[in-house]
Amino acid sequence: MFMIFGRIKDMIIATLALALPIIYIMGRVKGKAAERNRVLRDDLKTKEKTNDFYKAMAEHEDDPSTSDRGSFIKRLRRDGL
């Protein structure tokens, strides 16, 4: 009777021992994909911020309020860089 339970226990242990490397590799692949997605999202967010910055710069490109120093300083204090 104890021999049957011992064999079942041995089979379970062997199955888990064989499955462990597979589980490890699957986790590495999934983690790599998640990290790549995080980097791509961060890159996209940075590009959107850059685009917004250049759009704001284009709006103020022909701004006549930057013709002298005083108006330039007022605009900087109001809008920032």
Brief sketch in words of this structure:
The protein is mainly alpha-helical and 81 residues long. 85% of the residues lie in helices and 0% in strands. It is rod-shaped and about 95 Å long.
Verbal overview:
This protein has a domain of 29 residues. The chain has two helices and no strands. It is rod-shaped.
Shape: rod-shaped
Number of strands: 0
Determine the N-to-C terminus distance. 81 Å
> What structural category characterises the helix and strand content?
mainly alpha
List the uncertain runs.
Answer: none
Which range best describes the helical content: under 10%, 10-25%, 25-40%, 40-55%, 55-70% or over 70%? over 70%
Pick out its properties.
rod-shaped
Please describe the topology of this protein.
Elements: H1 2-59, H2 69-79
